[in-house]
Amino acid sequence: MEHYDVIVLGVGSMGGAAANSLAGRGARVLGLETFAPGHDQGAAHGGTRIVRQSYFESPEYVPLLRRAYEGWRRLEEESGRAIMELCGGVYIGDPDDVTFTGSRSAAELHGLAHEILDAEEIRRRFPTMDPADDAMAVYEANAGYVRPEETTIANAEVAARKGAALRFHEPVTHWQATPGGGVEVVTTRGAYGADRLVVTPGPWAPQILPELGLPLAIDRMVFYWFAPEDTDRVPYESYSDARHPVYIEETHGNGQIYGFPMTDGPRGGLKLGYFRRGTPTTPQTIDRTVHDDEVDDMRRRALQLFPRLTGELVQAKTCLYSVTPDEHFVIGAHPLHEQVQIACGFSGHGFKFVPVVGEILADLALTGSSSLLPTTLFDPLRPALQRGRAASASS
Ligand SMILES: Cc1cc2nc3c(=O)[nH]c(=O)nc-3n(C[C@H](O)[C@H](O)[C@H](O)COP(=O)(O)OP(=O)(O)OC[C@H]3O[C@@H](n4cnc5c(N)ncnc54)[C@H](O)[C@@H]3O)c2cc1C
User: Fold this and answer.
1) Which Gene3D superfamilies match (predicted)?
2) Within a domain: 78
3) Residue 228 within any structural domain of the chain
4) Which of 127, 260, 338, 386 has the most neighbouring CB atoms within 10 Å?
């Protein structure tokens, strides 16, 4: 049986970065993946992902984001691919709600460059948008988007160049800890041994880690691309990433949405979606069809912020979230096997952290700890996950 230092199970967003970091540190790495690099069945497709640093979810993420931005630029250099575009970001909300107040607190606490805008100023700077009259926003120039498919492909290419063995179209059927303190991993094609295992299965976590009973909600999410109108006052160019930021918006309880500038010309449309409000599913049973009533609902909501987003629906696609009860990630040693590291439950906001999660997983697999990992925020044994476990066991 072939033997490696580390096996990475799932070479998607996080697993690709982990394989890259591990190979860069000289480990003999094997990556095993069900699909091809850049596939659209999990959480890492759809062309764009927001990156931002004034993090309303919790200021604890800010040091990780700073580190991740360095990693994004390094990945671009190592791969020769264009991945990150900093077109600015605007987070619009009610004056006393977390989208606005949380973004402002994270920016203030960590001394991140930002500006506070009222509704009139938002309209002046970004003529595509017409927010509620009492809305307030944090504008952050150091925000924008990254390209998910390019990222996963880049990490795979760079990892392979550094010596990692990557096997695509080879799903893992099961894995087990071995008595000597290593692991054995079985796929549809063979069995492999390793000293350490990194498990990064995205929305397949409930299947590949059933023994942990993690309280993960696997949610069907949709992103939509609508064509804007081209008018004299608001021409197509106003939507392009030279002039238009990424954004998050929620006012008067209308449901938080996020979106992007036009990144692929007028024909590509403007991509947006609801940040939350998914429907529970599994990767095996998800309904990949996007229905007319969903499109109508999204259109109505989008028009509240973009009155001229009246053109055709260019496309709509489904994607999977893996959501923990407190919406924080799960990263750390497997509670039953210290030679196994797990990273899952990225709760719909993990992509911007890809390079730093790769570094953390390499640290954990090779040394057992990581100075980059917050002490308890992502702990697989934290109370919020225990309570969630009890709730899912009794329901
Ligand atoms: C609609 C949508 C919008 C999002 N927007 C943003 C955003 O703007 N900003 C942001 O930061 N984040 C965003 N996210 C979240 C982000 O994309 C995810 O948190 C991140 O991609 C999760 O990475 P992952 O590695 O856990 O999962 P994945 O990238 O899905 O990787 C898991 C991989 O494991 C493989 N795998 C699973 N089981 C096996 C097995 N048994 N054998 C072999 N391989 C296996 C899968 O095939 C897959 O390739 C969004 C997600 C969605 C769905």
Assistant:
1) D-Amino Acid Oxidase, subunit A, domain 2, FAD/NAD(P)-binding domain
2) no
3) yes
4) 260
Task: Report CA(206)–ligand 1 centroid distance (Å).
Answer: 14
pTM of the model: 0.98
User: In terms of domains, do 113 and 166 share one?
Assistant: no
Could you tell me if 186 and 301 lie in one domain? no
Give the 3-state secondary structure of 210-232: HHHCCCCEEEEEEEEEECCCCCC
How far apart CA 327 and CA 256 sit, in angstroms, is: 15
The reply to whether 301 and 339 lie within a common domain is: no
Residues enclosing ligand 1, CB less than 6 A? 9-10, 12-15, 32-35, 42-44, 49-50, 171-172, 200-202, 204, 208, 221, 223, 273, 319-321, 344, 346, 348-352
- Residue from 233, 216, 224, 388 nearest 314 by CA: 224
- Of 33-42, 72-81, 259-268, minimum mean pLDDT range: 259-268
Residues 241 and 212 both lie in one domain: no
What would the mean pLDDT of 286-299 be, rounded to a whole number? Answer: 98
User: Which residues partner with 311 through β-bridges?
Assistant: none
